[in-house]
Amino acid sequence: MVQSSKKIQVVPEPTIRRMPSYLAFAEGLLRKGQQFVSSTQIANYMNIDPTQVTKDLSYTAIVGKTRVGYEVKALVEVLSEFLGFTVMDNAFLVGAGSLGSALLHDSGLSHFGLNIVAAFDVNSSTIGKKINDIEVFHIDQFRDLSQEMNVIMGIITVPAENAQTVADLMVAWGIKAIWNFTPARIKVPDDIIVQNTTLYSNLAIIFNKLHNDRKETR
Amino acid sequence: MVQSSKKIQVVPEPTIRRMPSYLAFAEGLLRKGQQFVSSTQIANYMNIDPTQVTKDLSYTAIVGKTRVGYEVKALVEVLSEFLGFTVMDNAFLVGAGSLGSALLHDSGLSHFGLNIVAAFDVNSSTIGKKINDIEVFHIDQFRDLSQEMNVIMGIITVPAENAQTVADLMVAWGIKAIWNFTPARIKVPDDIIVQNTTLYSNLAIIFNKLHNDRKETR
């Protein structure tokens, strides 16, 4: 369980987005045997201002020491816990197609606290198979299993046009958070957490820059 | 090739991020046989203001018609081309571990214009294997192949501590854009495009909301 005596405060999303990078940097230093790290050193690595680093880390329980900075080992522990990577949350994945299978293959997710316990599809050629030891069930079995398996998160990797239907099902079955990998925008009640991650949006950003560069140099 | 008579202009990143959602919506309407769509209809779907939709779409070549709005078929074509999804770009992936294999399994990438032509690793148990028909080579073979295969993009899915080394190699071998899936921040020359995509950052955002909610209700 995450236990904290700190006052609960809303952490800005850009801060949370930077934290896995702080963690990766601290883990690297830990492996090299470095004992302390300054906010300036972290800032140089991140290409941001040291005051931003200090501000970001002030949301966690870590306290820097004058002159030496943050203890690297403590920083790794505090950030991992703060980011929720030390608590296992159970998830269902709906849509065991190309992207869905890709995510089922990524055991990095479980390293970061996400335990995908089952996958669902409507495609009879996939149902009954195991992908990276995770069984694929027919979508109709969703309800019974979610209660049984204490699942609080749903991952949507179906085609965009089916995303809302799947989201509605997930809400009905008691899922608290939805990780939506489709470009579709889904509508859910206010108390349900939705995170949109569209890989192809990132791809579009790269292409836009690449192809504009090419046009400019013509 | 992308050819355009339009003046080249910098498109804001939030606009590009919304465009794959516009595209998904338009593709859905096309399948349903709807001929025209208004900016208000798109705005409702996206939960944003109609003026934002009009502004976003003004970066593309599409022109809306009074009263009826945008032609759906034209919208799909214009957005696909604008986002670079109709041009195939060749890419190398370095790091055929868990996340790397996951991306190699995602044939959606090629649907959106990204053709991963080869993968690289240093792990002898992976080298020589094919993942989703893409061969895994030893990293030392990178240079020769990149010239041979007209590769302009590199995807980094190695452990964070090796990201900079791989990025340096990619730059040396003539790669123009890097898609970095590690939480490490990489430093490259100004003319190289870098896009950071950290799946685990999105996971951290969900966890932060989930666990704070739980604490609040205690």
From TrEMBL, chains A, B:
GO MF terms held by the record: DNA binding; DNA-binding transcription factor activity
Top-rank lineage group of the source organism: Bacteria
Presence of the UniProt keyword Transcription in the record: yes
Alphabetical list of SMART domains matching this protein: CoA_binding (SM00881)
InterPro entries per the UniProt record, alphabetical: CoA-bd (IPR003781), NAD(P)-bd_dom_sf (IPR036291), Rex_DNA-bd_C_dom (IPR009718), Tscrpt_rep_Rex (IPR022876), WH-like_DNA-bd_sf (IPR036388), WH_DNA-bd_sf (IPR036390)
Localization terms from the record: Cytoplasm
One example of a Gene Ontology biological process annotation: negative regulation of DNA-templated transcription
DNA-binding region: 21-60
Keywords: Cytoplasm, DNA-binding, NAD, Repressor, Transcription, Transcription regulation
Main location: cytoplasm
Entry keyword annotation includes Transcription: yes
Pfam family, one: CoA_binding
Ranges in a coiled coil: none
Domain CoA-binding intervals: 84-185
GO cellular component terms, A-Z: cytoplasm
Task performed by this protein: Modulates transcription in response to changes in cellular NADH/NAD(+) redox state.
PANTHER family listed in its UniProt record: REDOX-SENSING TRANSCRIPTIONAL REPRESSOR REX, REDOX-SENSING TRANSCRIPTIONAL REPRESSOR REX 1
Family, similarity comment: Belongs to the transcriptional regulatory Rex family.
Subunit structure: Homodimer.
Protein's name according to its UniProt entry: Redox-sensing transcriptional repressor Rex
